[in-house]
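From the methods appendix. Each design record in this collection lists the tokenized structure first, followed by the designed amino acid sequence. Records were kept in a plain field format so they could be parsed without special tools. The example shown here is representative of the layout used throughout.

RECORD:
FOLD TOKENS (346 positions):
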């Protein structure tokens, strides 16, 4: 989810430039099926057209790469790869840009047989650079900046940062309004206590303490429940039943719910980057990942991280030591500052 959202500003900028200079240009995106709702609401491969429900790309190529990796020699994997290769080549792409910088994404890009295969000179997975025919040197620290540099170098533009365009689905927007009205929620903070691995996970009990204080300030808390994260959400809401609500929903529903939030509070996860993409103020709670590279981008934010924390992607199960030095009071103070700034600028 984070990789898609980090690449989306560059592709949104490219879309804007192409519509102005080369109308009719086609942009396709090869993507894992579970993340298609970030690009297209109610995706139907043979009927989807660009518009509010698919604002940036003209087509999507579903890629079940994770399933294929788990079943590399199965018949379904062979057929899936064959069909993807045919679909990519049938489009006759002129340029393929890999903004993920992974061996897997570079291999998929090569399937398209585009005359130009382009990526960063120093990608996240170094071996992937040998699959690029053109390598772009980047100087930006944040991954959003790096992606924009690649696109600007390829198309010889000087495009600025564009807030990513995310799909809008009228039915989902109506669902969200009704969901909130049923619970009599007006102002709320969206929380996400989960994280990709344990070292990034700030204790759920501390999220609960922040939620309790936010209730005293007149804000309800909606807790996003990601896959396998129900227990964390239950801990946050356990003693805050009157003001804390769990939200189990689709990505499209999460987008709608995030759009209406006064603030987001969470760690380095996809929902944090979604909030930033939608220009919702963010309190980011960071430990083993570097906010200079992966922090909230393009929105008002406060990032909390202990000076002793070091970048470490070793997927440890226990919270990183520096992360545990961040208190509920620290997070609440950052939240209050952002909410106060919002009130002052209205």
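DESIGN:
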């Amino acid at each position: 989810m984070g990789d898609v959202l980090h690449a989306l500003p560059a592709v949104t900028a490219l879309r804007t430039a192409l519509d102005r200079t080369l109308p009719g240009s086609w942009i396709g995106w090869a993507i894992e099926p579970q993340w298609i709702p970030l690009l297209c609401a109610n995706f139907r491969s043979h009927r989807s057209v660009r518009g509010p429900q698919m604002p940036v790309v003209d087509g999507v190529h579903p890629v079940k790469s994770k399933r294929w990796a788990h079943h590399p020699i199965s018949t379904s994997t062979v057929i899936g790869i064959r069909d993807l290769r045919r679909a990519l080549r049938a489009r006759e792409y002129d340029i393929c840009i890999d903004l993920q910088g992974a061996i897997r994404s570079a291999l998929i890009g090569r399937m398209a047989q585009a005359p130009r295969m382009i990526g960063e000179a120093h990608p996240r997975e170094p071996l992937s650079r040998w699959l690029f025919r053109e390598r772009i040197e980047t100087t930006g620290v944040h991954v959003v900046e790096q992606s924009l540099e690649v696109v600007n170098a390829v198309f010889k533009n000087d495009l600025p940062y564009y807030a990513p365009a995310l799909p809008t689905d009228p039915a989902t927007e109506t669902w969200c309004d009704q969901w909130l009205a049923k619970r009599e929620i007006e102002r709320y903070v969206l929380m996400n206590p989960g994280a990709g691995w344990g070292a990034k996970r700030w204790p759920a009990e501390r999220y609960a303490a922040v939620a309790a204080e936010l209730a005293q300030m007149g804000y309800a808390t909606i807790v996003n429940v990601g896959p396998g994260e129900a227990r964390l959400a239950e801990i946050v809401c356990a003693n805050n039943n009157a003001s804390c609500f769990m939200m189990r929903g689709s990505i499209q529903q999460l987008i709608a719910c995030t759009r209406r939030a006064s603030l987001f509070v969470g760690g380095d996860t996809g929902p944090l980057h979604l909030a930033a993409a939608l220009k919702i103020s963010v309190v980011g709670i960071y430990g083993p990942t570097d906010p200079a590279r992966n922090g909230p981008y393009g929105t008002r934010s406060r990032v909390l991280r202990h000076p002793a924390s070091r970048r470490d992607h070793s997927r440890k199960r226990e919270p990183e030591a520096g992360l545990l030095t961040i208190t509920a009071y620290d997070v609440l103070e950052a939240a209050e500052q952002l909410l106060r700034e919002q009130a002052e600028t209205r």
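APPENDIX NOTE: The first helix runs from residue 2 to 21.
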